[in-house]
Write a structure and sequence with these properties.
The protein is α+β, with helices and mostly antiparallel strands and about 100 residues long. About 40% of the residues lie in helices and about 10% in strands. The protein contains five helices and two strands; from the N terminus they run E-H-H-H-H-H-E. Strands 1-2 form a two-stranded antiparallel ribbon.
């Protein structure tokens, strides 16, 4: 199943391998902890103002900061050829 991930760590390495999270936070005037969470891919939601500041700072598009990847997990599809019949959505009614 695909997942959304932060690519900030890679963007920072390409931009300047010596750039620290603390310096980036100071340069874009944003909370250190928010930058750190994005760097470590621990963010649940990405604030638009942060994305904008980072895009301007690195001169990139948002798609370079946030990427979709396959996490390797596969949904288990039920194969009816293995004998599994499943439950029918139809109701059987009996009349007396």
């Amino acid at each position: 199943m695909p997942v959304i991930r932060s690519n900030l760590k890679e963007v920072m390495k390409q931009y300047d391998p010596k750039l620290s999270i603390r310096k980036l936070a100071k340069d874009v005037d944003y909370h250190f902890d928010s930058i750190r969470r994005m760097y470590k891919d621990e963010m649940v939601q990405y604030p638009r103002d942060l994305l904008l500041k980072l895009c301007i700072y690195f001169n990139i598009q948002p798609a370079q900061l946030i990427v979709m990847e396959d996490d390797g997990y596969r949904d288990c599809a039920i194969d009816e050829s293995d004998g599994y019949q499943g439950e029918s959505n139809e109701r059987k009614t009996t009349r007396n």
